[in-house]
Amino acid sequence: MKCIIAGKPVSLLFIGLSIVLLSCEKVLDMSPPENGAVAVFDEMWQEMDRRYSLFGIKQVDWDAEYLKYRDRITAGMPDNELFQIMSEMQQTLKDGHVALISGVDTSGYDSFYSLYPTNFNYRNIQANYLGSDYKTSGPFVYKIVDNIGYVHYSSFNSTYTDIELEKMIEDISVTKGLILDIRSNTGGSSLNVDRLAKCFITDRKLVKYEKRKSGPGHLDFSDPVPYYLHPGKLIYSKPVIVLTNRTCFSACNDFVLYLSALPNVQLYGDQTGGGGSIPNNYILANGWKIQYSSTITLSPEKESIENGIQPDVRITISGLDESRGIDPIIDRSFLALK
Amino acid sequence: MININIRILISDNVKYDYNDYKLIQGKVLKRNCGWCFVVKLVLLFLFPIPLSVVSQSFSKSTGPGLNVSMGAAFSQISDRQFSSQVYSGITPLFGVGGQYDVGSGKHEFNITFTGGNLSAGNSSTRVKWQYVTVSYAYLMQIGNRDGSWDNRLGAALSYNSSTRKYDDFINLDENYEKFFSANAVLQTSYLIPGENGWAVTGRLMTSLFSFLSRPVTGINTPAETGNGGDVNTEKVSSFTLIPELVHVKTVLSLDKTLSVQQKIRLSYAWDAYKVDQEMQVIQASHQIFLTYRIDF
Questions:
Q1: What integer pLDDT is reported at residue A147 of this predicted model?
Q2: Which of B204, B232, B252 is opposite residue A14, by nearest beta carbon?
Q3: pLDDT of A316
Q4: A5: pLDDT strictly greater than 80
Q5: How many other CB atoms are there within 10 angstroms of residue B22's CB atom?
Q6: Distance, in angstroms, between A54 CA and closest chain B CA?
Q7: How many C-beta neighbours within 10 Å does residue A152 have?
Q8: Interfacial A residues in 196-225 facing B (CB < 8 Å)
Q9: Is pLDDT of B49 > 60?
Q10: Whose CA is closest to A276, among A95, A62, A90?
Q11: CA dist A271 to A252, A256, A312, Å?
């Protein structure tokens, strides 16, 4: 009984503070965002309007695109139609880093490579160049022929351990030259880029600049931020030929940029596909994910690499070469290193 | 271990002097028994420092004490860097702390940790979240003691770190806020009359000004972090006042004194902050935890 009586002020304290707490929670506005078709379309447009980094390079009138596509959006329209319209609007940017991903569909721009010869056929390489006596270490596939090393790395999304990287570098360190094949490598983790690039850098080196958005305006950017790499634990400093094609994109494009300035490195094949930015991901109110360029990557000379990096020696693979199982890009590289 | 210890040391002969809030030791309580001391030592070393901690000090402490806490948190986060969605989840919560009374003042030090996976209803992306708070507070008694009430006003310095990693993003996949704040603290305790050793405490802490650090954009993969080189993680550090950064923490606690040297506390806390800058972040966490305290 005592406790009940004494509990009166205590109860008041509890009630009072509880009301305060509940009020605070409401003030914070943690309610789920509106996720109807119009809201989601507007959200995507606004998000990209404020944070997409390449309007200046792409020369797209984003306001005009909004007016053009917004008319087609109606409340309650089916998801697949909404997806289609939003995807079409994104494609006007012609940016391989721009994508729309729903639970059942993905759309992105691929004309940076799909309109050009592939210049890469891994099946032919397996059958006629690697054979059965190649080695692997993590994602690296490699072989040594006549004291020339060949390494294929298919994706910078494929992570490797330090041990796997060091084993590969150690094994090829006996060679007098290296062919590093990163054709059709569509990018991935910049950490993997840095770790591999450091195996070819002998001194601390400025490899690029990054410009980041500093405000919502299309041209609001920070000053370029320099990006340096230091030499890795094991270094391969002999002649290297990097094989590239139009599908070498994003992180792969960065890797080519990093190595292209080295005196012992040459680029053979077709130009890279570009993707000179770091993409940002954003989840819309309906759970769909968008991806878009959020920075501008510049070379050490402060030039954009969005439209790709040119090779030192341009070589293409013809239909006849491919049907004969020949890869002239590898052949020419091999001869150059020999 | 806690349960065993409590069972052994609970005494019906513990009485209270409501005038000065001190416990009067009963006959049965063996304050200095040898194996009690051993149990205390075991407790101290078994609740390792990695367990973060919680807990405001118990309102009727008289000397230095340590406490450990365990519980759970239901948290919601809105991070406009990466989404308009509100991510939420229930995560375990741990805490450790200490307190020391000097005259009518009270020093407190607490560390708490909670973290785990958060999700949003219609998004397949999961967020790995970690939230650490470290705080030091000094509370002065205000006014005269009035019966069972004990009111305190004080100041606190706190460090809060909330990091979120989005599991299927690449490169720009992490965001954080780290802020060091000066806070005002108001605390009211009520000792429930009777010989049962129950007390209720309410506390409100609010930031006055802070030094905030957060990335310009989601963290890019750092280069050269392994060998002390350059790091490509641009961040913005700024001095912030209300309302640009508001951090509020309220705690309601129910205390039970078990013996002269031991207490347990059941607490509900609401810990929330809002960073009202470009890329707004709101985080709110409802926390329930049990704290065990031992005095020396």
A1: 96
A2: B252
A3: 96
A4: no
A5: 12
A6: 16
A7: 24
A8: 204, 210, 212-216, 222, 225
A9: no
A10: A95
A11: 12, 10, 9
Determine the 3-state secondary structure of A146 from DSSP: coil
Is there a contact between A235 and A199 (Cβ–Cβ < 8 Å)? yes
* DSSP assignment of A19-87: HHHHHHHHHHT-PPPP-SHHHHHHHHHHHHHHH-S-HHHHT--HHHHHHHHHTT--TT--HHHHHHHHH
Helix (H) or strand (E) holding A145: strand A140-145
B172/A280 CB distance under 8 A:
yes
Beta carbons of A6 and B82 less than 8 Å apart:
no
State pLDDT tens for residues B56-93: 445 555 578 999 999 999 999 999 999 999 999 999 99
Q: Is the pLDDT of residue A36 over 70?
A: yes
Residue A3 touches partner B, C-beta closer than 8 Å: yes
CA distances from A324 to A128, A268, A305, B43 (A): 10, 21, 34, 76
3-state secondary structure of A164: helix
**pLDDT-based confidence at residue B33 (cuts at 50, 70, 90):** very low
- Looking at residue A214, what is its pLDDT? 83
Q: What's the mean pLDDT in B243-247? A: 87
Tokens of A180: 């590093």
In this prediction, what percent of chain B has a pLDDT beyond 70? Answer: 70
Closest CA–CA distance from residue A59 to any residue of chain B (Å): 24
Residue A230 to residue B224, Cβ atoms within 8 A: yes
Long-range contacts of A219-222 (CB under 8 A, 24+ apart): A219/A55, A219/A56, A221/A53, A221/A296, A222/B216, A222/B234
pLDDT by residue (tens digit) across B185-199? Answer: 999 988 888 777 899
Shortest CA gap B64–chain A (Å): 27
Q: Read off the pLDDT band of B147 (50, 70, 90).
A: confident
pLDDT at residue A6 tops 70: no
CA of A295 vs chain B CAs: smallest distance (Å): 10
**How far apart are the CA of A19 and the nearest CA of chain B, in angstroms?**
12
* CB-based contact B176:B143 (threshold 8 Å): no
Q: What is the pLDDT of residues A289-320, one digit of tens each?
A: 999 999 999 999 999 999 999 999 999 999 99
A104 touches chain B (CB under 8 A): no
Provide the ipTM.
0.83
Axis-axis angle for helices A62-70, A79-91 (nearest 10): 160
| Short-list B293, B278, B290, B269, CA closest to B131 | B269
**CB half-sphere exposure, A166, CA atoms < 13 A:** 6
Cβ of A294 within 8 Å of Cβ of B270? The answer is no
Selected residue of B59, B82, B85 to mutate for chain A interface (largest A Cβ count, 10 A): B85
Residue A45 reports pLDDT greater than 90: yes
Residue B172 to residue A189, Cβ atoms within 8 A: no
Q: Is the peptide bond before B222 cis (omega within 30 degrees of 0)?
A: no
> What is the value of pTM for the model shown?
0.81
